[in-house]
Amino acid sequence: MSWPDVTVVDACVRRDGRGGSPTAVLDDDPAATDADRRAVAAAAGTSHAAFLGPGRLPDGGWPVRFFTATAELSGCGHGTVAAQAVRLARTELGELSDRQHTGGRTFDTVAIRRPAGIEVWFDQGLVALRHPAPDERAAIVAALGLTADDLHPDDAPRIAAPGAPRMLVPVHDRSALRRVCPHLGRLTAASLRYGLLGCFVYAPPEEDRRGAARMFAPAIGVDEDIANANSTGCLAAHLLDAKRAQTLAIEVEQGDTLGRPASVLASARRGPAGITTRVGGLAVVRDAHRGNRDTTPQHRTSSEP
Q1: Looking at domain 2-123, which CATH architecture does it have?
Q2: Residues 76 and 230: beta-carbon distance below 8 Å
Q3: Does residue 30 register a pLDDT over 70?
Q4: Model pTM?
Q5: Local structure of residue 282 (DSSP, 8 states)
Q6: Would you say 140 and 187 are in contact if contact means Cβ atoms under 8 Å apart?
């Protein structure tokens, strides 16, 4: 089918407006099938597509759905940044505070015009943390091709779930991070076996340097993500828990190995119900009027992870 006005947004760009994760954003069509929606990301040359619903739900949230070329996602952090940037760009406002409904949850969002783009923050909610079982950890580490020397000496893998669980895997430094070359078939099998979205491999932030990370999620059709905002929020929750702190804020650089430098902000807070997080990023709306885009099978192209 044809989709009018597909907007491409570079989500979670660096502070100077470079890079970011290209994300397709468009108004949903109630006549479309999920197969039609999955085809949009590939046709637009993006790893993800965000579909904006036609109106508010009774709880005040605007429905937004996210798809890769292979699946619908229960949530997408950089997709939320892109979606809310487009919603603000369609107005004359300087700031838009609102609520979004995705994956059965409604949460607060704010989008603010900045000189380099549109800054978006959203409430990720509670993040559940647990230590992986030995076989679970061993399967993911082996699929990533990591050695004992690559792993961080003072940090350990953790399962974090703001909804969908993923494994956080710390490595020694940025050099070890650049060397990660996963066996995608084994990683897909291990992710499916243990019910994981994927794995977020990271070099922890230090006092004088931002963190760095790479997200691998072949089980949902994204071999390597340019920017994974939800996993950055998970990392903030893990680091806060490890430090036994009350609040923590981080910035994590991503996308360098794919030639698309990206940056994600996150903050975590400990409260009576557990650890909650907010996630943010800067977005550049770079293509707001692409015209009709046909996503019937003969026109599909492979997506860029």
Answers
A1: Roll (3.10)
A2: yes
A3: yes
A4: 0.89
A5: E
A6: yes
